[in-house]
Design a protein that fits this description.
Blueprint (H helix, E strand, L loop, with lengths): L2 E6 L2 E6 L12 H4 L9 H18 L2 E5 L6 H9 L3 E7 L3 H13 L6 E4 L3 H7 L4 E6 L9 H7 E11 L2 H4 L4 H8 L9 H18 L3 E11 L2 E10 L1 H8 L2 E6 L6 E4 L17 E7 L6 H13 L5 H14 L7 E2 H7 L7 H10 L4 E4 L2 E7 L3 H9 L1
Parallel strand pairs: 3-4, 3-6, 4-5, 6-7
Antiparallel strand pairs: 1-2, 7-9, 8-9, 10-11, 10-12, 13-15, 14-15
Helix pairs in contact: 2-3, 2-11, 5-6, 9-10, 11-12
This protein binds S-adenosylmethionine and zinc ion.
Length: 387
């Protein structure tokens, strides 16, 4: 395999020279190589490093498992760039990945801190029950096949970091695949990416419930082709019950844009909207907060201290997440609402300021540049549009 040297954060790595493996212009270069490395995920990995640092500072120690490691970039970066890490176990089922991870651990002189393994991720995680306080799941496509084992491997307090690249099923393009993988129904709406993140979160929480484990999201973002969630984990049956009480369904009206939230796992859902149209339903899914402002503040402060190439974009994302953190679920889209009321969309900053002056929560959202989040009722919002 032809390799090249790169630097991500403070870490030097050997990765496949993916341009050599591409045969056609439309080939997706990272998936053509014998070992997977996607340079476009550096953005996501930088944020993961800062998240791990905040957790290490909070817990005083950190035992990390990078269970699906590829070239080992996440695990090696955690070991090299996060202070207070006690151990990082870096695993990949592929023998070629294993050899490359070994090289990358050596290149960064991380031998006592970083350990490596060449096993099926589920076997490894089950064998290490209750051991890690940071488990990173970064699979091809859906994390669903690994979640049970990941929850089992978590210690009494810690964090689960999950990536999903199967955003099409989660966002309602492939309904049956979403129901099959996540036991939840999506709908295709202007806020379908938020619905997808909430379906994924809700699924992780229900799997964790089997382990009497409560998972609370502290940061969740939809970027490029992937979703990424960081869930704070704590053992306790009552805590896990408390989480499930904040799951439920969203009933959406495609005609007027109204959304009705129902907090229950087996509820009776409303059938008809106030405007007379039929409602569509999504769920079960997480209806609580996706972000924790205090946590985001700490992650942003850590990112500011670091010398990352993509820092400006990463901080801009975290700032948007912080703006919308205290808002209600399900953002609106100015263009969609304008079409519903047959008018021009207002300037988003003016709209937000008007809603705030009326005493409502109103903010932008990281999900969309034309989106906004508010607790104002849909009729109140459309009144502003008509004016
Ligand atoms: C998306 S890649 C990981 C990317 C990597 N975390 C990064 O940030 O570049 C997924 C990896 O999981 C590995 N993998 C897939 N199924 C596995 C399994 N059941 N057990 C262990 N590794 C597996 C693949 O070999 C691949 O390297
Ligand atoms: Zn309606």
């Amino acid at each position: 395999m032809e390799l090249k040297f790169i630097v991500e954060g403070q870490t030097r790595l050997e990765v496949p020279a993916s341009e050599r493996f591409r045969t056609k212009a439309e080939d997706y270069a990272p998936s053509m190589t014998p070992v997977f490395y996607n340079p476009r995920m550096e953005f996501c990995r930088d944020i993961s490093v800062s998240v791990a640092q905040v957790l290490a500072d909070e817990l005083g120690e950190l035992l990390i498992c990078d269970s699906l490691a590829g070239v080992g970039v996440r695990g090696v970066r955690y070991a090299k760039e996060v202070k207070g890490v006690s151990k990082v176990l870096i695993n990949d089922g592929s023998s070629e990945a294993f050899e490359l991870i070994k090289q990358n651990i050596g290149l960064n002189e991380l031998a006592p801190l970083a350990h490596l393994q060449n096993e099926d991720a589920n076997t490894l995680l089950w064998k290490n029950r209750g051991r890690f306080n940071f488990v990173d799941l970064d699979p091809f496509g859906s994390p669903a096949p690994f979640l049970d084992a990941a929850c089992a491997a978590l210690a009494r307090r810690g964090m689960l970091a999950v990536t999903a690249t199967d955003t099409a099923p989660l966002s309602g393009t492939h309904v049956r695949a979403c129901v099959r993988r996540y036991g939840a129904r999506p709908i295709r709406t202007e806020y379908c990416r938020e619905l997808g993140l909430r379906i994924l979160t809700g699924f992780c929480q229900r799997v964790a419930g089997k382990h009497d484990l409560a998972l609370i999201p502290v940061l969740a973002h939809a970027t490029l082709h992937y979703f990424r969630i960081y869930l704070y984990a704590q053992k306790g049956s009552q805590r896990a019950d408390g989480v499930l009480k904040r799951q439920g369904y969203v009933s959406h009206c495609h005609a007027c844009g109204r959304r009705i939230l129902t907090y229950d796992m087996t509820p009776e859902l409303p059938g008809i909207c106030e405007c007379g149209s039929r409602l569509s339903h999504a769920g079960p899914l997480w209806l609580g907060k996706l972000m924790d402002r205090t946590f985001l503040g700490k992650v942003t402060a850590d990112l500011m201290r670091r010398n990352f190439k993509l820092k400006a974009g990463e901080i801009a994302l975290l700032n948007r997440c912080a703006e919308e953190a205290e808002g209600p679920p399900m953002f609106y889209d100015t263009h969609k609402l304008a079409r519903c009321v047959k008018t021009q969309p207002p300037k988003i900053a003016e709209l937000i300021s008007k809603l705030q002056k009326l005493g409502h929560f109103a903010s932008r959202t990281h999900f969309s540049d034309t989106g906004f989040r508010t607790d104002a009722p849909v009729d109140g919002i459309t009144r502003i549009f008509r004016r």
